Amino acid sequence: MASAPLSVRLPEETREKMKEIDIDWAEYIRTAIEAKIRELQRKKAADSMDKIRERTKYGEFDSTKSIREDRDAAA
Questions:
Q1: Alpha carbon distance 48, 54 (integer Å)
Q2: Fewer CB within 10 A of the end CB, N or C, for the chain?
Q3: Which stretches of sequence are listed as region Disordered (predicted)?
């Protein structure tokens, strides 16, 4: 997988504190970004499903009517 660089400006104090901690910061940031993307994708999908449910919940789609039409057409 190809990768693209990403630069972030931090206060010098924060950068110094990061140096004191033995963590692979690049991997940590990649993981955090990927987790945020997954979270937002799930939220977007849930919002989309909610919109579909709202249309069916308040009468824009009447399943009973649709079933009746199918049964009448088959008879």
A1: 10
A2: N
A3: 44-75
- The answer, as to whether pTM is greater than 0.85, is no
Per-residue pLDDT of the chain (75 residues; tens, 9 = 90+): 799 999 999 999 999 999 999 999 999 999 999 999 999 999 999 999 988 888 776 666 777 888 888 888 876
For residue 3, tell me if it sits in a domain. no
In whole angstroms, how far apart are CA 61 and each of 53, 57, 58, 70? 10, 8, 8, 15
- Structural domain harbouring 32: 12-74
- Taking the C-alpha atoms of residue 18 and residue 12, their distance in angstroms, rounded to an integer, is 10
Specify whether the CB–CB gap between 45 and 37 falls below 8 A: no
